Amino acid sequence: MTEASSMSATNSGSVEVTMNDIEDDKFEVASTVDSDEDYNSVYNGSIRGSVSSLNGPRPPDRYGFTGGKQYTEENNISLPVDVLRKRELKWLEMLDNWDPWMNKRFRKVKQRCRKGIPPALRARAWQYLSGSKALMEKYKGKFDEIDAMPGNPRWVDEIERDIHRQFPWHEMFAERGGYGQQDLYRVLKAYSIHNPKDGYCQAQAPIAAVLLMHMPVEQAFWMMVSICDKYLVGYFSPGLEAIQVDGDVLFGLLRRVLPYTYKHLKKWKVDPMLYTTEWFMCVYVRTLPWGSVLRVMDMFLCEGVKVLFRIALVFFRYTLGRADQLARCQGLYETMDRLRNMSDRILEEEFLVRESLKLRIAEKDMEREHAIQLSKRRAKRSKSEDNSPSSIDTHDTSMPLADSKQRFRNRSREFLGENRSFEYLPESKSQEVSATNDVAMPDVSS
Description:
Layout: E1 4-7, E2 17-20, H1 81-96, H2 98-104, H3 106-115, H4 122-130, H5 132-138, H6 142-147, H7 153-162, H8 179-194, H9 204-212, H10 217-231, H11 241-257, H12 259-267, H13 273-281, H14 290-303, H15 306-319, H16 323-327, H17 332-340, H18 344-347, H19 349-358, H20 363-387, H21 404-407
Antiparallel strand pairs: 1-2
């Protein structure tokens, strides 16, 4: 039975969203084992858990997976061939005239990214959107130079320990020491040399693996440079301050968009770092079915980090957005279990994209909340420094804690002709919605 409910904010500055509840709200636990060992994720516990897999090796699916939670059944293919072909022709024309399209018809580019980039053109489109193609052309031979360097032994050791954990059910990474794992090692080692201040972070590995599934190693490296240094600025820095700020921003948005969900999380002390580390730092690569992973990546590379916030709000809206859902999660463990085991319906690509675009939360709302959280953090730091000068943190956070307007603008528009501002800098860190608390929860007694 479907319940439709809506709530309107009474204040002029409030956010309004209409919610249609999901018909089937049953938990569906997906297999999440990524290797023969019990892989507990790189963040002290995977959002989706780690259980024994019943999905043994099968013929590779259209993405190259032979099993595991990423395996996609053929009956999930949705686009007719003639529709796909028409989209390919449109994208070919657009890619051949990229700068004019981005300068004059960016809205159309964004719409096409939201519909999904044709698989045959995804690698090329990602490089255009991220600006990595321009970087690779500008610094020809630079990757070969970095690739020949030995790298920091600390990062090399960590990379070697991690690479076998990345998608072992994918035919490219199935063989230990095979060409896929070798290329993954090269990309991660090269980035740790490119950015020695941050070095290597385990969250980079699944992103790099996704890129290698679509393009050669040099192209994947330059895309890693672009994503880490331009999209996820500061996410992989020591202390993870940028991801902490974005976690606070998401929590602040929840207070405005899903106030009862916000109160629930606060009551049970569900810290944003318990879910944003995997969701945001891995760009949902470890969380979503593979078709959804690619669709989110299409939008992320076009529109920037705000896509990550919208997807997270959809998760909360359909897992912890109703009174009965909250009533079943009386504790931190129960709440996190709910987030680990979201219904397949929520994670399905068309549903996820559609619902994320329905959210009436604008870029300016994110900018405002980001500015608020930055102000709070700086005030807290200033007070701490005044009270205890000996404990002052000298780590440079000027880039991770960037201007709020810069944080949420469309990243792909920065990589156009004369406006390309991104330089290669190897020595630098390159439910129901209401804003008020007096709105009643929806009637879910039926």
